Amino acid sequence: MLTLIRKQLNKTGNVTRSTYLWNTINAGLSAALCPVILMVMTRTNGVNDAGVFSIAFAVAALMLFIGQYGIRRYQASDIHEKYSFAEYHGMRFITCGAMLLASIAYCVYGLVFKDYGPEKFTVVMLICILKLIQAYADVIHGHMQQKGRLDVAAKASAARFLAELVSCCVALIITGDLVISSVVCVLTSLTVLMLTTMNVAGEYCGSMKPSITANKLKWLLIEGFPIFVSLFLNMYISNAPKYAIDTYLTDEVQAYFNYIFMPAFVIQLIAYFIFNPILTTYAKLWLSDDPTDFRRLMKLIRRQCLILLGLTALAVLVALTIGIPVLSFMFGVDLGDYKKELVILMIGGGMMAYGVFFSTVITIIREQKYLLIGYGVASLAALVLSGQFVAKGGMMGASILYAVLMALVSILLGLVTFWKIHASRGREG
Prior knowledge:
The protein is mainly α. It has helices at about 1-10, 15-45, 45-70, 70-75, 85-115, 120-145, 150-175, 180-195, 195-205, 215-250, 250-275, 280-285, 290-330, 340-365, 370-425.
């Protein structure tokens, strides 16, 4: 069976076409994971449990960036292999350990200071472990991408996401128990990881023995630190309204906010996956000494900005027309009072997509230190404004907070991107 799985993962007629196809499928399944589980959970367990799962997913998403350390973009664009896979692998053991400790610390904090009950504590911890599995798989998938086989990584990841989705939903329907369903999801994810990613890893990574040498680890941590902090802060900023709701409001309000926030969250996840395939291409164009390649890179950046503008306009149009009826039907609750909030969140989602794109370009041109400025300023704004907006404004306040923070990030990173590009215009020849 393992041989058959390896064969299917490696099978492709056209690597480029397969990469985009499977990366799209992977992005779709990743984006669908939380909303589909919430759809089922709302019907099997009610709105309150859906709120618990929502904040668990938000916390785990933040912890995931500790485990990944934001190094995937750097690794995939390290086409000259400044660091070996063994060194990236060794670093991932360190960062995954840090992720586990941070997850435990947050859950204990919730238990002591946020009145988390035993069930909520357990569910949040289990979903963090689920994301820990994803964080580990990411370093192997990053090496596959570096070797030009992102399609293989996307197939393995898609299989895991699908298995997590189906297993959790089935467990919810059968047991109606949030903890049991989370355990089933984690065990299923681990099993599929072994059958797919670990099964094929040896063909691309060679030895799976990690290398942890103090000097290389130090420099890899230093070079990746700006990316890690920026991505971690970006996730914090994106979920700041949810963390504020968890502090000031109820699990029921959390659930309703996540219902209307879901399209923006989907935009966020899709943005990360859509920009993954461009990393190596953009990096090669940037590193080329040919002025034609530089002009081609500029053209691709401008075109991507226009595409994002069109997608944002489409998202707002959908929110104004069929958004609320569709979401109400999906989650089985009446969301008719939240149309304005949905539109605001869609605008924020579009701004977030611009922020992700600009941060990707900044990373490729190796100016990632400037990411700290954009995300640092926005994080300070989130810390100052979250309580005021959410405690006083409720759902509307949380929606406005999200849009304001995303707009701030996209403007700051956009200014840095075009400033650095303008400074390199001499390369056009």
